[in-house]
Amino acid sequence: MNLGRRQILKGLAAMPVASAFGASAFFSSSAFAQAPATSAVNTTGLAVTDTEVTVGILHSVTGTMAISETGSVQAEKLAIDQINASGGVLGRKIKYVQEDGASDWPTFAEKAKKLLVQDKCASVFGCWTSASRKAVLPVFEQYNGMLYYPTFYEGLEQSKNVIYTGQEATQQIIAGLNWVVQNRGAQTFYLLGSDYIWPRTSNKIARKHIENFLNLKVVGEEYFPLGHTQFNSAINKIKLKKPDVIYAIIVGGSNVAFYKQLKAAGIDLSKQTLLTISVTEDEILGIGGENIAGALACMKYFQSLDNPNNKAFVEAFKKAYGPNMVIGDVTQAAYLGPWLWKLTVEKAGSFDIDKVAAASPGVAFDKAPEGYVRIHENHHLWSKTRVGKARPDGQFDVLYETAELVEPNPFPKGYQ
Amino acid sequence: MTQALSPRFKNLIGLLLLAVLLAVVLPLVLEPFRLNMVGKYLTYAFVAVGLVLCWGNAGILSLGQGVFFGLGGYAMAMYLKLQSSTLEATKIQSTPGIPDFMDWNQITELPFFWVPFKSLPLSLLAVVLVPMAFAFIVSFPMFKRRVGGVYFAIITQALAAIMTILIVGQQGYTGGINGITDLRTLAGWDIRTDSAKTILYFVNVALLLGAIGLCLLVRGSKLGRILVAMRDKEDRVRFSGYDVASFKVFVFCLAAALAGVGGAMFTLQVGFMSPSFVGIVPSIEMVIYTAVGGRLSLFGAVYGTLLVNWAKTSFSESFPELWLFGLGALFIAVVLLFPNGLAGLYRSHVEPRIDAFLGRKGRSGSTPAPAPAE
User: Fold this and answer.
1) How far is CA B76 from the centre of its chain?
2) How far apart are the CA of A81 and the nearest CA of chain B, in angstroms?
3) What pLDDT shows up at residue B141?
4) Which helix H or strand E contains B340, and what residues bound it?
5) Which of A262, B175, B337, B342 sits at a 20 to 30 Å CA gap from A191?
6) In what order do the strands lie in the sheet with A52-59?
7) Where are the domains of chain B?
8) Confidence band (pLDDT; 50, 70, 90) for B162?
9) How many CB pairs under 8 A join A and B?
10) How far, in Å, CA of A78 to CA of A70, rounded?
11) Distances, alpha carbon A363 to alpha carbons A84, A369, A376, B223, in Å
């Protein structure tokens, strides 16, 4: 539907191939008559038939991570439905097998293996936490699968078998810090984070950028266990040090306590600059818009983005899942996965994992809700970085976006 | 004479049946992927078997067996991680030659307690000795001070929680919440191939049968009878001159060592270790396996573990969003309908018929024979 000419041209280009391979394509359903023969597009035994291709969806729909990952599942299913409605991939309808990672990393590994070995999925959309990705990565590399991973994460990783549709750390951090320095005149920073690899790595990059590139000062850095709810002593220290910017990478349920206690301690976020890279529209549902209004978030996507792609996406999402749904950064990144895979498969003219991996760099998606994105040689996405200011209604006002796409750099020199 | 030998004979038959099922039937019926999954389940069976001895026989309920499973698993994972962290493989890091997660956490040399894990024999020793030593340190003062029953269970549970927090918090040394991932070779042997997984499965089965054999020996001996006596009337055993605490410490350490072996086999077959196997939930799950199997039956524990995990996998594959309800229903059914687990079901329904068939009078054997696989 919204693929228009390119899709038709691809189909036409595939026709001679289809007729050359004769019978199997000839007997396939008339709607997909232009589909190239299965033997040509699938030489490695993936679950591809003349009319269907099987993919996997692997997220937690039970356990503590379910609340975060459900949005990703919904976005991926929406994308798959839309792709099917517009003619499928290489003339084949996408069928998905969904597995539950149950917020448990070994379960993720087990299910990933099942999707690749048993279901022979041509591609898998899934994982959310770094821990689950680390658990499945060896499985994808060993059985040569393709994973589209949606979450912004710490970087320091690159694999032939993964396409990272979220931002790596530098894409999320550097532009935001530059912006608060230029627009709020920030001189001093106080870094906060939950205690695991993503906040620690991100704060490390933030500190290097602040100290070595901006020549400004970090006046404090503190970490809290996951699920921590007592931030009073940290807040007292912040009041004492009076940093220009509170840089917060607190995740999950801890956010609720953190922002409520900040407010209770009399820190007014319309006067005190707070920049976070861990709060999206999804988290604000739990925190409450009135508790976080005025805070700045640095993301690549906000639901309130004003462009035709995003308006269509938000409308389709709400139509599918209800008018009260909110869409966060990761949900949008998850939506990109099936589309990027479709475009890559059609560029490669094959479902074979090796060909898809090789064809990935350079694939561009201009209907992305966040705008135009393109896959880099390192399998991350070129994306814009945006700064948004939280409103009491739980949405963000977009204050700034980078003029150009920001290059993904998972192994940043000078930041390690 | 035959009368006296009979329970032992039944155990032998049970062991043989289990061996045939695990080593012949399942490998023939299942494809390699499913067999590897059964292998994973069987690593929990080590814990369940230890719990039968510790909880069923000696009456010591531990809700922290995941700690020992984890210690064994981490010992193996540390060795495997060092194997895969060669200078060549880690040359991209700021400090090559150390595990990748240490490098991410700005650690620049291998911590001292990682050094022994460069050696395979030391690591294998650690798989058994570290959980045992830890179990000893924890249980000795408690049992000496006659802390038992519910209090002991609660303390072990707290231990599981503490251990998780420690591992997650010290991510530079332990890999944090991600765990230790991307394990490749054991002494140069690639453990990720299908053939390696099959071999590991059979090693696992052999070790498990050995573990059950060891537990049967302990149970059949005079020691085993003292354990049961302790469970039923601890004071009388004490007044008879036995040092109750030492027996308890012994059986707790034995269960810990078995759990450690299970953990190591888990790491080898799954390819990583994470703190999600150390915490409270997995520890309690392991008690549930034992309860479903029947807490007095060593064989029941194995079948219970297989049944629960099989149900977990197949429910979650068929109903990804509802499977936990199915699992919950299974547990409720077990508790309501056959409180003595699979072994109880076998004893009340199957065994009398077999005895009648063989023309023997129903004997109240001290050890139940296995329940049939579901």
Assistant:
1) 15
2) 19
3) 94
4) none
5) B175
6) A93-100, A52-59, A124-126, A147-149, A162-164
7) 7-361
8) very high
9) 96
10) 12
11) 20, 16, 8, 70
Contact (CB, 8 A) for B48 and B290: yes
What are the DSSP calls for B133-170, one per residue? HHHHHHHHHHHHTT--HHHHHHHHHHHHHHHHHHHHH-
Q: Which residues pair with A245 in a beta bridge?
A: A189, A273
Taking the Cβ of residue A79 and every Cβ of chain B, the question of whether any pair is shorter than 8 Å is answered with: no
Instruction: Provide, as residue numbers in chain A, all residues whose Cβ is less than 8 Å from the Cβ of B321.
Output: 61-62, 100
Minimal CA separation from B102 to chain A, in Å: 11
CA-to-CA separations, B209 to A232, A316, B20, B333, in angstroms, rounded: 54, 57, 11, 29
Say yes or no for a CB contact (<8 Å) between B169 and A225: yes
CA distance B134 to B253: 8
How far apart are the two ends of chain B, measured CA to CA in Å? Answer: 34
Q: State the angle between helix axes of B120-144 and B65-84 in degrees (0 to 180), rounded to the nearest 10.
A: 160
**Cβ distance of B101 and A411 shorter than 8 Å:** no
- What six digits make up the tokens of A23? 């019978």
Residues A333 and A341: their CA atoms lie apart, in Å, by 13
d(CA A142, CA B193): 8
- The token duo for A135 is 């658990």
- The CA-atom distances, in angstroms, between B311 and each of A39, A144, A304, B314, B323 are 37, 28, 44, 5, 9
B77-131 per-position pLDDT tens digit: 999 999 988 888 887 777 888 998 888 777 888 999 999 999 999 999 999 999 9
For tokens 């620690």, the residue is A200
Q: What is the ipTM of this complex?
A: 0.77
Q: In the prediction, which pLDDT does A8 show?
A: 43
Shortest CA distance to A285 belongs to which of A59, A33, A71?
A71
